[in-house]
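Page 37, continued from 36.
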């Protein structure tokens, strides 16, 4: 290798290294944080990995007993005779905040798990912890009168729930299915709307068809510039605009995805037109065909199959993009996913993510096969 070539290579390598070093600094990449703080995200991943797909009908058993908050600790012991017919008994029926109580349960659902609640006089509920009943339906648990006790009359409540009956699709799964159907049709309507507009615009944005005279050249640059501007605006921004304009719902999502798809398909379609064989066009033009006849008989027959393949691919993209559109109120599964994440319902969010993944995989497989058959 000549000396000047080696020197040039060294300068290029140093320039690339400088660019990536500066990029590393600007983006504040710190690989150590991936390992140091991984424990923070483990519970979230665990819940997402257990989607709420199937459930059984739940039965519940609730029992409660009273406790009276006093100025001083009286330590009234509950007599054994008074507990013969009661299902929930306290070691003392009155006391002050901070007193230790023993809660005893009798004749409850055996071998089941339940939750104890403290309910104050203004009906505020505070969980005290879980308990498990034995084979005879009994349990005992130590609790402390919480600072949340307000008023004089308090209630200690035990709630036991257990699944019963056959497995069936959970409410989360049914809701996810409904929203996925909405997402598919949202993407379908946006894609169809975009195709109808993008096809004529792509003819106007094709250099080989429109640069024959000054007037059509101006139209070409105007359409091309408009498509570039629309494509530069993210669908998420468009969705925010249309949510304000037409309200929250799938219609806003259709408009946002449709406008962006017009720009994307218009560019792709025009590039297909620019790569066609000019022979048929010249032959048709030489016999006096009008511009519309040139398009119908000389252009469209050569691009119809690529147009179909690109349209199916765009529908696939719009299904995935509609998930993000839903986060700002554009309807579909994204709107539901955003609500579940905000409410920290990660099991339900896992169901939505699983549905999105399945639909995207199926659509990708189908669109690939369709494109393969069209190309053949």
């Amino acid at each position: 290798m000549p000396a000047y070539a080696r020197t040039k290579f060294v300068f290029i390598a140093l320039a690339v290294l400088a660019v990536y070093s500066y990029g590393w600094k600007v983006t504040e990449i710190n690989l150590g944080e991936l390992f140091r703080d991984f424990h923070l995200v483990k519970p979230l991943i665990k819940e997402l990995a257990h989607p709420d797909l199937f459930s059984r009908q739940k039965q519940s058993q609730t029992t409660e007993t009273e406790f009276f908050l006093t100025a001083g600790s009286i330590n009234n012991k509950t007599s054994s005779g008074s507990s013969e017919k009661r299902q929930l008994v306290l070691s003392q029926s009155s006391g002050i905040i901070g007193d230790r109580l023993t809660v005893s349960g009798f004749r409850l659902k055996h071998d089941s798990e339940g939750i104890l609640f403290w309910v104050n006089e203004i009906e505020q509920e505070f969980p005290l912890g879980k308990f498990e009943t034995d084979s005879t339906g009994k349990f005992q648990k130590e609790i402390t009168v919480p600072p949340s006790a307000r008023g004089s009359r308090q209630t200690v409540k035990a709630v036991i729930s257990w699944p019963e009956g056959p497995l069936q699709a959970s409410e989360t799964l049914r809701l996810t299915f409904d929203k996925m159907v909405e997402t598919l049709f949202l993407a379908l309507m946006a894609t169809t709307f975009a195709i109808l507009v993008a096809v004529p615009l792509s003819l106007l944005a094709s250099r080989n068809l429109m640069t024959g005279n000054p007037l059509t050249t101006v139209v070409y640059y105007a359409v091309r510039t408009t498509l570039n501007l629309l494509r530069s605006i993210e669908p998420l921004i468009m969705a925010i605009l249309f949510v304000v304009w037409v309200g929250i719902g799938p219609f806003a999502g259709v408009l946002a995805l449709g406008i962006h798809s017009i720009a994307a398909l218009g560019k792709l379609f025009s590039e297909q037109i620019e790569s066609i064989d000019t022979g048929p066009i010249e032959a048709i033009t030489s016999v006096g065909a009008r511009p519309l006849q040139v398009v119908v008989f000389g252009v469209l027959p050569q691009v119809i199959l690529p147009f179909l393949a690109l349209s199916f691919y765009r529908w696939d993209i719009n299904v995935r993009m509609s998930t993000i559109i839903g986060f700002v109120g554009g309807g579909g599964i994204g709107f539901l996913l955003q609500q579940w994440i905000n409410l920290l319902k990660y099991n339900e969010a896992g169901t939505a993510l699983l549905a999105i993944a399945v639909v995207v995989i199926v659509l990708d497989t189908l669109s690939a096969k369709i494109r393969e058959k069209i190309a053949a």
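Residues 41 and 300 are 53 Å apart (CA to CA). Flag for discussion at group meeting. The longest strand covers residues 153-169.
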